[in-house]
């Protein structure tokens, strides 16, 4: 599932031309969320780094 802007949806429904920019964001062959890190994982990593630097 993904979300689109209202502007994109209006243009699509009206049959107007529109520019897709996903190919500018994600190189061919890569996934959109290949490097995804959850907030919980990020916080755990930060806590771990803090403990390591304090110890």
Folded structure, characterized:
- With 55 residues, this protein is an all-alpha fold.
- Helices cover 53% and strands 0% of the residues.
- It has 3 helices and no strands.
- It has helices at 6-14, 22-25, 39-54.
- The protein is elongated and about 60 Å long.
- The N and C termini lie far apart (44 Å).
Features:
single chain, 55 residues, mainly alpha
Distance between the termini: 44 Å
Shape: elongated
List SSEs in N-to-C order. HHH
Oligomeric assembly: single chain
Number of helices: 3
The rounded Rg comes to 19 Å
Task: State mean pLDDT (0 to 100 scale).
Answer: 83
- Poorly predicted regions are none
Largest sheet: none
SS class: mainly alpha
Care to count the β-strands? 0
Q: What is the percentage of strand-forming residues?
A: under 5%
Q: What fraction, in percent, of the residue positions are helical?
A: 40-55%
What's the short story on this structure?
With 55 residues, this protein is mainly alpha-helical.
Write the layout of secondary structure elements.
Blueprint: H1 6-14, H2 22-25, H3 39-54
């Amino acid at each position: 599932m993904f979300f689109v802007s209202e502007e994109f949806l209006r243009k699509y429904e009206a049959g107007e031309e529109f520019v897709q920019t996903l190919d500018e964001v994600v190189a061919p062959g890569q996934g959109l969320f290949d490097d995804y890190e959850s907030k919980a994982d990020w916080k755990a990593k930060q806590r771990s780094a803090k403990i390591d630097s304090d110890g």
